[in-house]
Amino acid sequence: MRREETADGVVYRLGDDTANRLASDALRILASAGLADDHASLRVSLGQWALLEESGKELESGPGRATVQLGYAVEGIRLIGPGAKTNVHCDPDDSGQGGVVARLFHVNRGFDGRRDVPLLDIERAFQPLLTQTWSGRELGPGSARMAITAIDYGLLALPADVLQRFAAPALAVQGRITDVDGGDSREVELRFAQYLPLADAGALAEAGFASASRLIPAPVVKRQAKGK
Fold this sequence. Notes:
The chain is mainly beta.
């Protein structure tokens, strides 16, 4: 494990040998449990904890739990969303060179067939993002600025406890909205993550899928004061 000083603070990283060992152990455990589906991606991440003072300055930090993350695809198209992934969480073992499985999450529904559907153009796809309210306030022209920081394309897999007959094309969008009036003489910054559908309900119905009034989970929003 490596400890690195960066502009954002201390970062802990796993060595290649440790990451490879954790991935191999996780795949072996999944195979023994009958959960060894063909995966499209595999990565090993390391969490970390930090103790902060009231001003936000970091006082102390350390490595956390390592996670082996497997992703899936359908005919070369990534499945995105919470309903198609495997996470094997590992705590450090006594030797410090490996890990002990602490918990496991696996969901991958598989598929029976596919249909072709027309995709929305970018303007229509982003319309729900541009017209919705944020923290109870509409963003009028010139009142705030939106920046998109990441976009992923794939087939949306809904949460494991939601009945799903099809995975529709979607964009996973992350971004931030700045200069938002917080209502208390402060400007705040909103960071958000949201799925945007790329096929409307009518097109899905014409392709043989049942239409649905709501295909996409609500956005995740984090409100952060800008220190005014």
